[in-house]
Amino acid sequence: MNIHIFYIDENCLECPITLPKVKNNNIAKNTVLLLETSGSTSKSKLVMLTEENILSNIFSIKKKMRKIEENAKALILSFLGSSHGNTCEMLFCLYYKIPVVLYDGLVSISKLLKMLSINRITRVHLVSPLLILLCKMDKDLIGKYNLSQLCRISFGSCIFPKELLKRGIERFPNTMLIQDYGLTEAAPLVASLTENDWLSKFGSIGKQLDGIEIRISNEKNNMGELHIKGENVTPGYYKNILENESLFDNGWLRTKDIVSIDNDGYLYFQGRMGRIIKSNGYRVNPEDVESVILSLEGVQRVLVYGTCDEIRDSCIHADIVLEDTCKLSTEEIIFYCRKHLPSYKIPHKVNIVHELEITASGKVKVKK
After folding, report:
1. pTM (predicted TM-score)
2. Per-residue pLDDT at 10
3. Fewest Cβ atoms closer than 10 Å to its Cβ: which of 31, 87, 230, 360?
4. What's phi and psi for 42, nearest 5 deg?
């Protein structure tokens, strides 16, 4: 169980949510929720979230969204396991009286499509591996389900293969594919595209929500570490003085995420600082490599990481899970990488594996 303290006032649909105070010397004032980070790139930490954090994010999301579709109904997958499922989905829907269908647990593509169709779902948030599988599906198979009412699929920060997103648009012509960016420490949403710019700014995670300040640290070529500040930002980690001192500075939170920004102020997710691989004098972002491999037909999941090597700083490895019917060889995968990546980003070793460890939020667990 990822939620350690969780209570909703019985009148939460009609008034601001009032939650009980927790008496504990290690917990910040007005903390109402202790929620674990996903732990995909480091050891999970307990994040303290206050009433102000949660409500400010709910209101900022609504302002960013501008309008809610008619007959709105949300499908929420495993909401207990993620901050996005809690605030952006469950509490947001409760506050704005949007009916929800809850599904907790692993979900297959066929099960997902069936739930979307039968329940007349208008909005759903998907982890990127699930959306990738949808985008790769045969158009005729998707056409067997009535998804005419599906207005919005949102998905989190990743370097999503653009060709797959284009295929997703073809397969879901009535649906907006909206990328956003958030983290547990921000309760969680920081930036998002909208119904007005999701096509024109394809590949962006959008602009920051109202009330959130951003700055880019150690910026080179409009790229650097994203720092954020706002009412939605946690007061700190529970019983973790070292991380609190390392990541917080006068209200600013270091996200450890690398972003770039264009001339219009739109942000683009470029990877995570802790995952950069140093190889042959180059700095390789493994998510660039993963994005290319994921665009290959038959690839279900991939994890790219570095290992120590006597010749290079690090040797680039790729662990790949293939779809059941896929017969791709490691040689074919490396050949594909040579066609789509610069030489210094090509994996030195490719491993076909049966499974990769998945976190509670659906992300692939990164190897240390």
Report:
1. 0.86
2. 34
3. 360
4. -155, 180
